[in-house]
Automatic annotation (TrEMBL):
Keywords for the protein's UniProt record, in alphabetical order: Acyltransferase, Cell membrane, Membrane, Transferase, Transmembrane, Transmembrane helix
Signal peptide feature range: none
EC number: 2.3.-.-
The name this protein goes by in its record: MBOAT family O-acyltransferase
GO molecular function: acyltransferase activity
Amino acid sequence: MLFNSIIFFIFLGVVVPLYYALPNKRIKHIFLVLASYFFYGYWDWRFCSLLLISTIIDFFVAKALATSNVEKKRRFFLGISLFANLGILFFFKYFNFFIDSFQSLSSDLGVELDFLHLNILLPVGISFYTFQTLSYTIDVYRRKLKPTDNFVDFALFVSFFPQLVAGPIERAASLLPQLSKNKGKINLLQMKEGVVLIVMGLFRKVMIGDTSGRYVDHIFGNIETYSSGEVLAALFLFSIQIYADFSGYSKIARGTAKLLGIELMKNFEQPYLSTSITEFWRRWHISLSSWLKDYLYFSLGGNRNGKTKMYRNLMLTMLLGGLWHGASWNFVIWGGLHGLYLIVHKLMLKGRKVQSVNLKKFSVKDVLNIFGTYLLVLLTWLFFRATDFATVKVFFRKMAFWESSDNSMLFLSIVLAYTLMTLFLDTVEYRTQKHTFILDIRSNGIKLGILFALFVVSVIYMVQVDPLPFIYFQF
C-alpha cells in the first residue's frame, strides 16, 4: 500500500479512529498488528508468512538468550536468529544475483548454471524489517536489552505499518517501551505534528520527488537519445528525487506514527547541507548508517585495532551497506565510493572532530565545502540510478564528448527550480531545527491555509497520474 495513494488515506481514516475507540491496550495492539499485516499483505499476502516467521523465531530466541548464561549456548541461539533472518534475506534478494555472477565465470569453464536461476519475487521492505528484528536479538545477546514477554507487543514492533517497508529502522530499546506503555491516548501537539509531517512529507514525495522523477525515468530510460546537458540534468534531478522521495516517506511514517501516539526517530536532517562526507552520513538515512555502525562496523572491530584495520572495517561496512541496497554490482560500487570518501576524509581530519556548518553564520569556505560534498555524492548517485554498466558507460562518454542541445537552458531552469524548492525547505528546517516549522506560524489562518494548499495540490496531482512507488520499497 503506497503512502501516496488514496487507498492509504482511506486505510488511515479507518484505522486511527478504530484504534482509539477500542476499549483497552491489548485489544488496541492486536488490532494494530492485524492492520499492519493487512497493510503489508496489500501487495502480496503470501509474504506475511515471512514477517510472522521472523517474529516467532526472534521472540523465542531472545527469551532463550536472556535465560542462558552459557556463552556457547548463547552464540548458538544468536546463530539461529542470524541464520534464519539473513537466510531468508539472502534467498529472496541475493540468490539470483550470486548465481548470475558465478554464471559469467563458470561459462568460461564450460559449466552452465542457468538452470539454478529462479523466478523469485522480492518481498517489499524485507531488508528493513530484517535489520530491525536482528537489532533486537543482537542487543539482547549483548545484554543491552531485556527481552519482552509480550508477544503481541513484539509482533507490533516488527510489523508496525508506518515504518515497516522503508524505515526508519527502529531499535527495540526505543520503540518497544513506547508500545508497552502506550495506552492509546494522544495529546493535541502530537496530533498537530502528525498532520504537518504527513502533509509536508506528501508534498515532498509527490510534488518534488515524483515530478522530478518522471524526467529522470524518461531520460535514463532513453539515455542514448539525449544530449550531454540533458543527461547531466537527469543526474542532478535524481539526487533531488531520491532525497524528496525517501525523506518524504520518512516524514509520512513519523506523522502517521504520531497519530497513533508513537514517536519514530528522524531519518534525515538536511544531508545536502553537509560540509563533509562524514557529516553527510550522519544526516542521510540516519537509522541505517547508525545500524551499520553499531552492528557491523563495531562488530568487525571498529577503530580498536589500529588505523589500517579501521579503514578496512570502514570499507567493508560501506561495501556491505551498498549491497544491502540491492543485488547489483552498481550498488557495491556506490558503497565502495562512499567507503573511499570516508577513508580519505578521516585521513584529512587527522583526529580532529567533524564540524557542522552554522547557517546563521557561515563562510565562503562552508559554501564551497557543501558544494564539493554534494558533487562527490552526486557522482555516486549515477551508480545508484543506473540499471547496468552500459548506462554508466554511456553517461561518461557523453560527459567526455560533450553534445550540445537546444534544450540545455530548459533543463537548466528545471534543475534550478527543483533545487531552489528543496533548498528553501531544507534551509528553513535547518535554521528552525524543526520538521514541523509550519506550527510556529502565529496566524492560524495562514497556518491552515498553507497546509490545506499543500495537501490539495498533492492530492490533485495524485489522482491525475499513476503514483510512483517509493524508491526504497525495492530494498
